[in-house]
Amino acid sequence: MLTRRSFLTSTVPVGAALATFNAAGLPRVLEAAAGAEGRTADEVARDEAFWREIQQGFTLDRTIVNLNNGGVCPSPRVVHEALKRYLDVSNQSPVYHMWQILEPNIEAVRRNLARVAGCDPEELAITRNASEALQIAQLGIDLQPGDEVVTTNQDYPRMLDTWEQRARRNAVKLVKVSFPVPPPSLADLAQRLEAAVTPKTKVLHFCHITNLTGQIFPVRDICRMARAKGIRTIVDGAHAFAHFPYAIRDLECDYYGTSLHKWLLAPIGTGFLHVRRELIKDLWPLTPANVSLTENVRKFEEIGTHPAAMHNAIAEALVFHEAIGIDRKVARLRYLRGRWADALKGFARVRVLTSPDPAQSGGLACVGIEGIEPGKLSAHFWDRYRLIVTPIKHAEFEGLRVTPNVYTTLPEVDLFAEAMAVVAQKGLPGTT
Ligand SMILES: Cc1ncc(COP(=O)(O)O)c(C=O)c1O
Asked: What's the distance, CA 244 to chain centroid?
């Protein structure tokens, strides 16, 4: 976690740091963090004075209660201001200001991202989102007809579509494993994936944390099992990075893709791909690159002309993120999740599909009311309360996905719990 002193001596580039320091919001966040020193993350999670400082760092529409931070998130003011500043600089003369001044600074972003992600910068490519990152791995691995890919039926639909296309195009076989929500244990998840593996399996693709119920997977155990059998692992970390603490190097996976416009709160249109160094050479980029880049992770960034402002403002998002501190952040997200889940405990028709075990979940959780269709429930919440949650309809379960964020207030979370309690008791208006 950054204190004010360590922030000033951190590896963030000086220009970026000064600009950020001047931006409204961050000094108050740093002040709050300095005041929180010496207290546990769980204590700070319950300290509303601390979180008020974080909340004022955003320019939100507070007439809307946004509990869908799983889709895409607003950036804090310091990030959005930086993005606009970089766009203004670019537009003076993009061939000079964007290509020559801003673009080379992607290397500082790579360095800082790798530091926070716990990996080597030479293994990290900055992408436009998690989809692009994961598709580079999914479409760039050489596979032969008959080769098998094992995934789950709760992986992200676009990633499953990508494998389905490979199945149609390259005659690979796709195997989708089912699992209960919540599962009986983390070991159960690993066993299910292992049981689906055959001598023809070449790739295992699964989420670090699922987008449907927020189930965290035992990534390292699965990757070790796969490595021992010569199987490559692709981990979908779209919801993991900057949500809960881990270091990519400890996961022992081969390819890891994430979004940065979710939990890192970076500009919309940012993500990264991590590729284990010895595998870079043999992974084909999605957009072809010069042969001289074959062993260079930057080959995955050869996408043609694009706005440098997006990826450069990731630097400010990292500063904001580190000012809060990942341990405090996840403790707060779990506290908010626990607050609405606990309030709904006494209601027989309410079923939370996410384990409260911190090893298995963070701030993202899924909850249903027996007999109430989630699409109708979320529409009712929007109409009545201007409250946004995400209806989830999976072939094996359904519910509402609830994702608060660091800017979420207690009254906002309580409103959701109260709204659920009313429907759990009385049903939807006009239907009982
Ligand atoms: C699990 C998972 N994987 C991948 C993605 C794709 O992310 P993006 O839209 O940033 O490409 C998402 C988006 O919600 C997701 O939830």
From this structure: 9
**Which pair of tokens denotes residue 151?**
């995934």
Write out pLDDT tens, residues 399-424.
999 999 999 999 999 999 999 999 99
* 243 CB near ligand 1 (under 6 Å): no
Nearest to 129 by CA among 306, 354, 3: 306
Dihedral (CA of 261, 263, 266, 267) sign: positive
Question: Ligand 1 pocket, 271 CB below 6 A?
Answer: yes
Nearest to 1 by CA among 282, 326, 306, 252: 326
* % of the chain surpassing 70 pLDDT: 94
Ligand 1: which residue has its CA nearest to atom 14? 71
Location of structure tokens 């598709």 = 135
Name residue 205's beta-bridge partners: 234
In DSSP terms, 267 is beta-bridged to none
Phi, psi of 70 (to 5 degrees): -85, -25
| CA distance to 124, 134, 221, 265, 393, per residue, from 318 (Å) | 15, 22, 29, 9, 34
**In this structure, what token pair is assigned to residue 12?**
């963030």
Neighbours of 430 (CB within 10 A): 6
Q: What is the pLDDT of residues 269-326, one digit of tens each?
A: 999 999 999 999 999 999 999 999 999 999 999 999 999 999 999 999 999 999 999 9
DSSP string, 109-125: HHHHHHHHHTS-GGGEE
